[in-house]
TrEMBL record:
Example GO biological process: carbohydrate metabolic process
Organism this protein belongs to: Paenibacillus sacheonensis
Lineage: Bacteria, Bacillati, Bacillota, Bacilli, Bacillales
SUPFAM superfamilies: Six-hairpin glycosidases
Gene3D superfamilies per UniProt: 1.50.10.10
Domain called Alpha-L-rhamnosidase six-hairpin glycosidase: residue spans: 394-513
Protein name: Glycogen debranching protein
Amino acid sequence: MLQIMPDNPFELQLGPILGPYHERRDTKGLSWQDLYICAGNRTYLVGSQNGGFPDFGHHVKLEMGGLWLHPIKLLDGFWLHIADREGGAASDGSTAMWLTESDSFHNYPFYNEHRYRLEPLELEVVRRQFCPDDEEGIIVTYILRDLSGRGRSLDLKMLVRTDLSPVWFSEGNGIEDGMDEGRIDKACGLFLAKDERNPWHVVVGADRQSSGGAVGREMFGPHWTSGRGIGGSLVYENVSIPAVGSEAIHFYMAGSNRSEQEALQTFAKLRDHRAQLWEVKRDRYEAIADRTVVSIPDKHVQKVFDWVKFHNDWFVREVPGIGRGMGAGHPEYPWWFGCDNSYTLLGLLPVGGLAMAQETLSLVLKASEEANGNGRIIHELSTSGLVANPGNTQETAHFIQCAWEVFRWTGDISFLRSVYPAVKKGLSWLLEDMDPDGDLLPEGYGIIEIEGLNVELIDSAAYTWSALLAGAQMAELFGEEEVRARYEQLAARLGEKINRELWIDKEGLYADAMAPAGKIESRIDIYIERAQAFGALDAVGDLEAIKAELAGLDPACERPWLFKNWVINTPMETGLSPRKQAVRALERMATEEFTGPWGTYLSGMYRDQMMTISTGVQAVAEARYDRMNESLRMIRLIASTFNKRLPGSISEMSPDYGCFVQAWTNYGMTWPLMTFMFGIKPAAYRKELTLRPRFPDGWNDMSAKRIQLGLGECANTLDIEVVRSEGEDVCRFELEQPGWSVTLDVLQPADGTCFVTLDGEPVTAEARDGSIVVAIANAGKHELRVSRTS
């Protein structure tokens, strides 16, 4: 229940599981640009950590903050005014003041607090907010505590500023924002508002009857906000606070994009079931925390790993009539993306997000089929239901690769069957529509949109190779032998072509693009001028070297070009690159030319911006080739930006700007650790599991518990523990449901001599490429020991 601890009214009884998760920041003098989110799957609130509600945003200009109920916005913000009826004086001689700038901000997994110390009024105040699951509203609680030692009587005024308005890109549906209209329902003590042109409504009230209220077009709180909203205030007189005691007042803010009646029903539910709604959300977050519980030597990485599990839930966006799935980034990208989710969903799989991964892919696929119908996967879907970008070339291949990984973890054959027709269409689109010259390298923009160069790009090529292999395995599963053989043949040809023609041996790197010299020449001066304007001398030098190479080349001459963007890591990320080439490229990518103080540069030419996804891809690429020390370095760089902007979070742009939380950050934090270091690779549809633990130096005692494998009939749960010492290595694991086949693949001692036991009994193990491999049929709970002999 929502209990206040007797010795401290500012803490909730979170219990032992969630209790440790609390990050804070002093906020006096903090910039309004330091934002936070109070997350929910239906509503969410974005404001400043200092307690304000600034106008900001570029998708919906100046309107990306406030209270959102997609596909509409409800409120710009809300403010509490406190007046002391009997004593206390503010610095200006008054006995009243607005809650404006907080002293500190406190972030918890599913709620947040702003804490104020009002010395003139001899009060402490906490503002606490949370968005209940599946509800179209928010609950905001103010706890007022006396510091004077005497009983108090206060008058409170809650002022809200509406901004009932549509999400970005809604104009494509012919939606026009109208002016908001408001009224006070004195009998019920509510403020109600609606948009004059649309059935959008918001209702605000408290857990007690107001003594009055007012509405005004020019009614604002401590600061003005933009938009077509209206102000509404509710007054609560004679709120009593005992001496050195506290009193809480709960506000309920509910909305609907369909009717006032629905908004009123939600308001009543929030009011009447506040404690139960909080318990439900707390219990669900306890379940998130209690899933995939890792213990590793690096406790900071472990802490960030745990917070990232909560971040995943902050992105779940559900919109009736449109769908449910993972959004991309707060505050500017809360809707759905093809590219982002092909990374995000892999990071979601090892921490229990199997069903959400399928839901998200199904939503993206449905929108893609409706918008394109030819297998092309969309880039961006607004919560208005409109596709803003039909999709870059890379996204179709990336989606196919992701869908296969999701299937391997879930084992849900009905899901794969629903996706497979689009997979075949998508591969045809890539290798026919997008490959007019028939060289197997699809054309078009990839992740990095090099302006004017929608040519044959390395990321599109590498992911198409991976997609062909995935398509071949799908075809085999569905008994389409000819399709399987064709996809495998194409993958072999494409992989050989990439490794031969896009590999630049003198650089020890893969090229960004294959393009005719004339196309590069037509843009190179623009790129040089841009680099000069940025003062990027390294980029200027690199680009001028390219310009010199162009001299005398036939404009039709097609060749590889190196622009040093981070996507040249994708051949290693996917495992396409032969080991010798991969190690050579990764070693250069790990130098100061490509890696900065917070991660992998977006561009090795410019060397000024780093991102969690570029660093995450490098972490995966390093782990793919068993370079676990190097992979850990990248993971640590991501983790080093934790708390830099939002307490409890990691910014999209490293170390502290862009979106203050980004979904695809989980890819670099969870995928290399769980699938390469712990080595967990399920084929749930066959009830098979490979465990191939490989850890960084010095990591000698690791465990991961309650890892979800499979859905439905394929469901299982895994615990794994690895302990290493000078004398022996021990791997223990347990499957909750016996019956799966498990292949254990552990490192062989350097000198090759060892004694192997399984469950205490000697076992003959297969030696394979420096590994010891043991197959266990009908696996349950087992212990493998590899003892080094003298």
